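Cross-posting from the chemistry board since nobody answered there.

I work mostly on the small-molecule side, so proteins are not my area. We synthesized flavin-adenine dinucleotide and want a rough idea of how it might sit in this target. Sequence and SMILES are below. Is it possible to get a predicted 3D structure of the two together?
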Amino acid sequence: MLEVPDPVEYDDAIVFKPTDELGYLWYFPRTATEINVGLGFQMTEDPMQLVETLKQDITTRSEFKNATVKDKLGASLPTRRPYDSAVADGFLAVGDAAGHVNPTTGGGIPGAAKSAHWAASHAVDAITEGDVSESRLWEYNSDVMTSFGKRFAAVDLYNLWGTARNVDELVEIVSAVPGQQLADALSKGTSSMSLKLKLKTLVDTFGHWDALYELYKVSRRATEITQIYDAYPESSSAFEEWRIDRDELMEEFYELTGATRKYWSSPKTQTVSEIGPLSH
Ligand SMILES: Cc1cc2nc3c(=O)[nH]c(=O)nc-3n(C[C@H](O)[C@H](O)[C@H](O)COP(=O)(O)OP(=O)(O)OC[C@H]3O[C@@H](n4cnc5c(N)ncnc54)[C@H](O)[C@@H]3O)c2cc1C
């Protein structure tokens, strides 16, 4: 948190800048003189000097010349799709603990708030009925997966695609793609464009059509994966089958993009209850 002596001009905006390793740097004004400044990178990529990179950017900006550092914080976040199940006997996971974070932005507050609300509601019902088994709590998984869970699984594909490409090229594409469509793709997992806008985008992205065509194919997979998550099983008995469908789509996706594998599918996966008590 930086405090600046004079109000910044962008007090009603959020500012993002790309950094190496598919990370980003941000300036979020809380007020016109109190700015949340930060930087994130993906821990699957080569490590970055976070503080140095941030310092370098801050020193290029005149509004921060006489700024005072008010507070500092750092933490890690799960930038991945949600865990396939967040319940076990007598157990519900919410928020970061369940991977309820947008994998492209690291935004985890909405997922934490929504999942906590649903989890609390299911917990109250389960306790009232005297059944806190995994199968009784399973509906909570469906709540998550058929809402933001499917969107996060979809945007995760863009994240994976991005790690397979060069940052400069991504910046050029991102700068040419209309803002609203890009925001939709990154938050909802899908977006649409009018013909006129498509043509304009084609002109603006000249030189990147191969990448754009691949991106188009990624967007098709993103739509398909949301459909798979919409069909998340209503009980744990169909869980394995569902995972096989999803993993098949992921295999196609890795083949299509050449992206580094982020998840491994196992022939037989286990729910937490099947694994039994965890030991230290
Ligand atoms: C630098 C940074 C910037 C971010 N910016 C944004 C943003 O702009 N927008 C956004 O949407 N998200 C942002 N996030 C992500 C967001 O903060 C998290 O996704 C969100 O807070 C997760 O909420 P949570 O309740 O799951 O976990 P947390 O907020 O981490 O809460 C977990 C709590 O459990 C406590 N705890 C841990 N262990 C124990 C224990 N054994 N016993 C008792 N208590 C325990 C912790 O102290 C903590 O208070 C940011 C994260 C970071 C690190």
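Reply from a structural biologist on the board:
Welcome over. Reading the output above for you: The first strand starts at residue 2 and ends at 3. The longest helix spans residues 134-163. Happy to explain the token format if needed.
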